Amino acid sequence: MAETRVAVPEAIPTGALATVPAADPLADVVLEADERAPLLGSHPGHSLAHAAKREVLGLSFMALSALLFSIMSVLVKVSGKDFPFLEIVLVRSIVQFALGTAACLYVGVKPWGPPGLSKFWLIARGSAGATGLGLFFWTILNMPLGEGMTIFFTGPAFTAIFARITLGEPLTLLDVAATIACLGGVALVSRPEFIFHDTGRAAHTPLAPLAALGGAILSAIAYCLVRKIGNRAHFLVHVTYFGGVSTLLSASLLFYTNDYVPLPSWTIQQTAVLLAVGLSAFIAQCFLNAGLQMAHAGPATLMRNLDVVFAFVFGAAFFHERPRITSIIGASIILTSTISVGLYKWLLGRRI
Known about the structure:
mainly alpha; 2 strands; two-stranded antiparallel ribbon; single chain; 70% helix
């Protein structure tokens, strides 16, 4: 009798995963290998049903990620009543670095990265993310929650421009239009005095919108650096470097400014809130990574923008923030622009 051999698919190695951040001071996104091919011997109907369940689960993870990131923002704003923003960044970074390192060791990944990859790119990515995180936290403490989050979420529009310059990726007319629209939306949200000549209450300090915009630009740079690294590093390596570099930078600046609350004077409640900032951010990143592994990029973009919706709701519920009509219009323009670009690229990818 002739011998029959059945081909067994090989497991995808850890290094085949690539990470991509999605418009968030602090989110890393994972893309994995093509999963459109059905499993050996599976029924087509079963494959479609499995894909549909996987998509729904992925979108659910994205929604949970948006909720947790918004909760983190609320906790940052609460902590800001007792701590300077650099101290909050430091605690958040230490928690992320510790959990990221532990997760790397658990899954069998070297926290310092693969031997063939230059550490310069990982450090540069961590530096961009860490600086953007600091600007984002400062924005939250000096600007209404929903408005600050909205400006920070203009990151994808800048990503298209930087990706064209540094990576040679195509820049479409829609990308340019979305970038211009986002900047118009930022103007409506931030209401610069030289345009609106406000005489009423000031909703934020003049530098807060600039800090949010700077954080968005740095998140775009971090995204391009991740694309530069490609699939040579596991996403947990990025998370670990992000936390490590952010810990060093925030600790150095905190020592230089000498503006901090000594650890012995922290109350149990204050400590719990600070640790919850780091823990909620780390769990949110895990949901974000898992969600973008399972869901297509276009629908995932819709769920990712729930951050802004949650931020406006939480700002009104917990801090009695009432957005102006111009802020609502500006946020709608920004969300429409980023969602349009995401859906367009998803549909374009499906045709290829």
